[in-house]
Structure formats: C-alpha cells, structure tokens
Amino acid sequence: MAGTAPPRRNVVRRTLPVPTVVVVMGVSGSGKSTVGGLLAQRLMVPFLEADDLHPAANRAKMAAGRPLDDEDRRPWLLSLADWIREATDSGRGGVMACSALKREYRDLFRRAGAGVWFLYLALDRASAARRVAGRTGHFMPARLVDFQYAALEPLRPGEPGMTVDAAADPRAIVDEAANAVRAIR
Known about the structure:
Blueprint: E1 21-25, H1 32-43, E2 47-49, H2 56-63, H3 70-89, E3 94-97, H4 103-112, E4 116-122, H5 125-133, H6 145-151, E5 161-165, H7 170-184
Parallel strand pairs: 1-3, 1-4, 2-3, 4-5
Helix pairs in contact: 1-7, 3-4
C-alpha cells in the first residue's frame, strides 16, 4: 500500500453463525491491539493479543531484527487457530489482534471456526514505521516493518470482513466495525 488515498471500505457481508470471531489484522503499528481491545469490550467478548502466544524463540528472533518466516510462524498460527476453534465451539466468540498478513493464514483461521471475520487496518509504511519506532517495551523493531509489507496480502474480494484506514480515530473504527459485525449476525 503506497498509501496517500484512504483505502476503500469494502465490506464483505455474509450470514455468519453466532458466535463470530473478529480478527483485527494489519502490519505492526496499525493499531490492532488498541482497536481489538476496544472492539472486544464493545461486543462483550474475550480478547486475545496474538503476540502473547508467540514462542520465546520467535520473540527473540524479531527482537534481534530478523524477520519470521512461515516455518517460524506455523506453530504460532496453529495455536491461534486452536483459540478460534475454542472460541467458536464454546459459543462465546471473541476478538483477536493478529497481523494475519497472508491469505493462507486467514484461510487457516476460517477453517478453524465458523464465523471468522476480518477487520483490516490499512496503514501506509511511513506511518507504521513511525508508530513502531515510538513504542517502548515491544519486541518488534521498526526495521522489520518493511518485511511485514513484503509479506502483506490485503483482504481480497470474497474474504469476509472490511478494510478501514488505520489513521482514523480508533473509536470511530470500532463504531464502524461493531455496526458491521452486528449487521452480519
């Protein structure tokens, strides 16, 4: 996303069984944790910060400035799919903040549970790099942002979810996403 124009709000609606799991996705620094936490509160469902499930080796690799590859991500993605399966099977639903950079990852999540829906927080590289550089206490260094953009496959037509401009006020994003989720339930 070269990104001077805001992304289209391409809401893909379909009838989803309750409970719905919303995956708030995007590159590091896009606001996934903030928006995801607020959205979970609004929908009154559990929230998972996917970074919390990264194995220590993955965290150490990223902290050292080395990007993860698909082999590194696989156990982490499988644990996230397990969380989705549990959230849907238990009947509670949930919201998860996860980069979900590639369609194949999102496909894995959709196979894990009925009703998975994506909220893609689209953000230009410069803003993402600036946000990540300004964070303290996080293992993801700003120099890895370019690797995330190299791997990023934005939501495609037919994938359930919507794309929003991550530069917008998080409360406005949550309002829009909550309305979209309620409309498909």
